[in-house]
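User: I'm putting together a small comparison set for a docking exercise, and I want a reference complex before I start. The sequence is below, and the ligand is adenosine-5'-diphosphate. Could you produce the 3D structure with the ligand included, as structure tokens?
Assistant: Of course. I'll restate your input first, then give the structure tokens for the complex.
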Amino acid sequence: MRSPHTGVTDEVDLLTSKKHIEQLSEEVLDLYRQVNLLYRLGDVFNAGLERAQICQLLIKETCKVLRARAGRVVLDDGFAVGRVIAEPDSVLSVAVETLQGHIGEITLYDKRRGFFTAADEKLVRAVARQAGVALENSRRIAVLTEQNRTLEQLNAELNQIAQMKNDFVSNVSHELRTPLASIKGFAATIIDDVEMPIEIIRDFVGIINDESDKLVVIINDLLDVSKMLSGNLNYTLTPQPLQRVIDEVVTLLGIQADAKGLALHVDIRDPATVNLDSTRMSQVLTNLIANAIKFTDEGEVLVRQWVADGEAHVAVIDSGIGIRKDLLSRVFDRFYRVENVVHTKEGTGLGLALVRGIVDYHRGRIEVESEEGQGSTFTVHLPLAVSGDPTAPEAG
Ligand code: ADP
């Protein structure tokens, strides 16, 4: 039989044990929540998330498990996510680290005093380490993705260059074949017809001569571009009036303009002395004016020269077919021809590349403005010669 005294002791023991068990089960439950948190975050962090998502998840899940009011992650590069509460009574700050070291901090806030325990800190430290690894992985993936994008872009550019080279080979073959066929045809006719009158022979030889000139121009362009690329295009720069070069080229090309029924005008507004290689500069103007004539079927071509801001400017203005806005930036590229897109006139696509190379050598710039169907303006800007100019580049 149990004495009442003994009964009281038993009841106290029972109560203590019950409290103990409740405490234990509370601890077990907490432990379960913590382990669960680590597992869950481990899984989602492996899913290749971006850093903002990783930081947001880190805050959300740790606040939930620790029942904290708010949290904020600030990374060393200034990136920040989450919120801070006003006048918190408890603050827990833990480093976010990768294997390489410190990359930021997570801070949790609560209004209750003495709220965060040493066990909480341990847990946040473990989760922050996981987040650190996930952030590092995410950074590496971002770098790889960017590198991949750059490689894809380079690859697309290489394909484009390969395509341009193919177009170039077929254009050049065509450009060479046409005058050659003509030369061969007229020469064969002269040989076959022993009784051909001398005037007709003269006409035919004239045509053969013109067609040979075309061949020479194409071959010279090819050689010049190749020399320019290897830095072997020769220049002799001397101060001279720009007008002289303009007048010479306009006189020569006037015949081509006349043949197409186009007016070719010159408007020299200011005399300008420029440090130039006259052969190369006449190549520039010949290309620009010949293009203006080639791509204009009616109207006029105007060559205007003026001086402003210490530079001489030469604009070649035509009222021709113009150039599509989206193709404008490409026309100075080697081998590039708008015709490869819209197929119209003959050409090799070398002229403007050469023009830009020569203008660059003269420390100048070339710009183009164009309106499709309205015409184009190519403007060359060249520094004026200063007497005894020591800045002239060496020939090369
Ligand atoms: P091409 O031998 O084809 O004329 P260029 O390098 O001189 O080569 O010119 C490149 C391309 O730029 C031309 O094929 C043409 O499509 C365009 N272009 C150049 N000048 C003009 C112009 N005045 N009007 C319209 N298009 C032009």
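The helical segments are 4-45, 51-66, 118-192, 198-229, 242-259, 278-294, 339-342, 351-361. The first strand starts at residue 70 and ends at 75.
User: Thanks, that's exactly what I needed.
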